[in-house]
């Protein structure tokens, strides 16, 4: 009776191992396959007879043999399980992802467990490898991270222009100021606004004014470097923090931008709109109390450009 029950239990366990929705592989101490369940057969395309007694590392050359050996030997020596998670190692064996819902992932993300298997004499002669498909978890995490990144980007950019908004731009300026105070690297600020912008709105309408602002932003994007921080300061006024740039080179940047705007033609509802900008440049070559001094100096230079007739660049001395 007991022998019959043990045989039934063995049959049930074998059926469970074959049909469970995780990969189950039993390896001997030479890493040769002894058990290869249906999950592994379906994902790898290898039938049990083809995998039997084959070295597991030869079947999957993408596995780092030194890393895998350290893992297995640790399990065999200590007699305790070992784990890997997809956040640290996306997969152990590279299986294609066939899940219809998470089909956008190019491979199956996996968690794995290595279990010591003791023989009747108490010695660990085999290791059981269990592979879990966690692609749905990884996909959800990636989608959440992408959504959070998008929200973060939206929270720091101006919706009309795509430039940084006032809050993020000013925080970036604080950081640039702190780096200058610590390392002494050159930092300059260019402030600019659109000349006679109210006249543009009054003549062509506010939608035309928005189009002009968008085109200014596009030119700023084109002229600024990746290390520069360009933002919309407010209304028709913009600011660009130029890293590792003194006021002389800041003037070069500003003058190049001024000429680009002067040669720009904005078309709106069949009408041609031309306009200019005035700019002010300042740097941190003189003593300052905080980052707000740089804003005040650049703004003072911008006012000087306006006062001198607009469509020009002035440098704060």
From TrEMBL:
UniProt domain GGDEF: residue ranges: 185-317
EC number of this enzyme: 2.7.7.65
Coiled coil: none
Record-linked InterPro entries: Diguanylate_Cyclase, GGDEF_dom, Nucleotide_cyclase, PAS, PAS-like_dom_sf, PAS_fold, Rev_trsase/Diguanyl_cyclase
Pfam families reported for this sequence: GGDEF (PF00990), PAS (PF00989)
Organism superkingdom: Bacteria
Substrates-to-products reaction catalysed: 2 GTP = 3',3'-c-di-GMP + 2 diphosphate
Annotated protein name in UniProt: diguanylate cyclase
């Amino acid at each position: 009776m007991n022998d019959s029950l043990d045989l039934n239990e063995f049959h049930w366990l074998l059926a469970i191992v074959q049909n469970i929705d995780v990969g189950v592989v039993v390896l001997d101490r030479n890493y040769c396959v002894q058990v290869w369940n249906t999950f592994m057969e379906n994902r790898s395309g290898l039938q049990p007879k083809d995998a039997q007694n084959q070295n597991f590392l030869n079947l999957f050359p993408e596995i780092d043999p030194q890393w895998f050996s350290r893992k297995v030997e640790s399990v065999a020596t200590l007699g305790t399980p070992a784990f890997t998670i997809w956040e640290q190692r996306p997969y152990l064996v590279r299986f294609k992802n066939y899940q219809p819902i998470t089909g956008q992932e190019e491979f199956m993300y996996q968690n794995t467990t290595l279990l010591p298997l003791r023989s009747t004499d108490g010695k660990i002669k085999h290791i059981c490898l269990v592979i879990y498909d966690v692609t749905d978890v990884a996909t959800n995490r990636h989608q959440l991270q992408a959504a959070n990144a998008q929200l973060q980007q939206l929270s720091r950019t101006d919706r009309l222009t795509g430039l940084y908004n006032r809050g993020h731009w000013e925080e970036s300026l604080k950081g640039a100021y702190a780096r200058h105070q610590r390392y002494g690297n050159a930092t300059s600020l260019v402030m600019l606004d659109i000349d006679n912008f109210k006249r543009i709105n009054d003549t062509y309408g506010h939608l035309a004014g928005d189009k002009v602002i968008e085109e200014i932003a596009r030119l700023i994007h084109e002229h600024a470097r990746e290390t520069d921080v360009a933002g919309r300061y407010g209304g028709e006024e913009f600011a660009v923090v130029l890293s590792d740039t003194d006021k002389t080179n800041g003037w070069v940047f500003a003058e190049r931008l001024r000429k680009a705007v002067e040669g720009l033609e904005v078309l709106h509802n069949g009408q041609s709109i031309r306009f200019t900008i005035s700019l002010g440049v300042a740097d941190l070559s003189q003593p300052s109390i905080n980052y707000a001094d740089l804003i005040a100096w650049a703004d003072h230079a911008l006012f000087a450009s306006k006062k001198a007739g607009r469509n020009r660049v002035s440098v704060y001395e």
